[in-house]
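From the shared-data thread, chain only:
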Amino acid sequence: MLRIHFIVTALFALLCIGFICAYGMANAGVVHAGQGVAAPYEGRLVVYIVEPSSRYYMYSGDKYHFGFLDFALDTAISLDYMDSLQFSVEWSAVDAGFYMISEDNIMAIAAVFNEETHISYSAPPDTFPFDAHYVDALAGATVDSQWNNTSNETFTHSVLAEVATTTYCFACPLNSEMLYNIYQTHDYPFFYIELIADKVDTAMDWLDLRNCKYASTIYYDGGDNVTVSSKTYESFYRDPIEDCGAREVYFLGLSVEVEWLGDMAIGVNVIVDNTLFD
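Structure, as tokens:
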């Protein structure tokens, strides 16, 4: 009886060891962007409020698209694996100094910036340095529609382009036209925002953080790629979008909803999920 008990115990131990080894090998490499499964995600959540058809006019006399008005939220986040965070805020146009916003022309774009700092340049390749934090996730919403952070065969996440501009910049209308044409094709999970520095003080302050010196500078994914000037060929804009979209990121779920509250105010609800590969 003792011998039988010993054999059964030994077999059970071997099975346990085999299971542990198999489990370990199956889960080896479940580490993304240098972070282990159990490591919390650290970053910054920023919600931009924009008008899809801006109140401001470019040098060409045409209206901007996705003209920035204000931030509804700008906060550090720390998110454990398999956890989620939800933020609900109200944004008032009147409190922000704007009037006559409409329910069918207001939008929230939410971006999650990684806490890791990179040195980038506002005049590539090596002039006007700034601390860049790359975008890991992006989502947008109007009152009627939502676009969650998206990954597919070629894009690891939705890409953000922030455009430095002024109403008197003669080169800027071409940037706006080219980006809008690309956006309209729906070829990419992609949003862009026009930061109109001579009209919106908050836009100027944001660009100062990037050490921006020139209107017509475009910051892709927080500075992963930066271009200056404007061009008549689409590859000048498509290439940075595609390069950023292919960048390895920490996979996050990100969604945003917008509710019209009346009295020139909206409610913005954002959910960030740290589900990694789920």
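Residues 225 and 239 are 10 Å apart (CA to CA).
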